[in-house]
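User: Let's play a game. I give you a shape written as tokens, and you guess the letters that built it. Ready? Here's round one.
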């Protein structure tokens, strides 16, 4: 399946129980770095994390471990999303 954008992919992860939303205020450092390290230590079944309240940023959001979650279907879907989003219209590829 090809996703329209990152937002639609995150919605699918949430439907599959592979996205954890964090609404508590966090600091860019050390909180986000620590969370990235901790979720990585959980292995290939670890969920993606979506932080919605970053100290010092109005309406800032950060998604972590998107590449490391949803191991059964993610790699092919990610490749299609990246190709669709980054390929110039006049590409020879």
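Assistant: Ready! My guess for every position:
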């Amino acid at each position: 399946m090809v996703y329209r954008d990152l937002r639609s992919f995150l919605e699918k992860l949430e439907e599959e129980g592979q996205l954890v939303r964090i609404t508590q205020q966090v600091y860019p450092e050390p909180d986000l770095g620590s969370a990235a390290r901790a979720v990585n230590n959980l292995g290939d079944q670890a969920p993606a994390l979506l932080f919605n309240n970053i100290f010092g940023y109005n309406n800032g959001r950060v998604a972590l471990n998107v590449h490391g979650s949803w191991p059964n279907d993610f790699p092919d879907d990610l490749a299609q999303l990246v190709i669709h989003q980054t390929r110039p219209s006049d590409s020879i590829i």
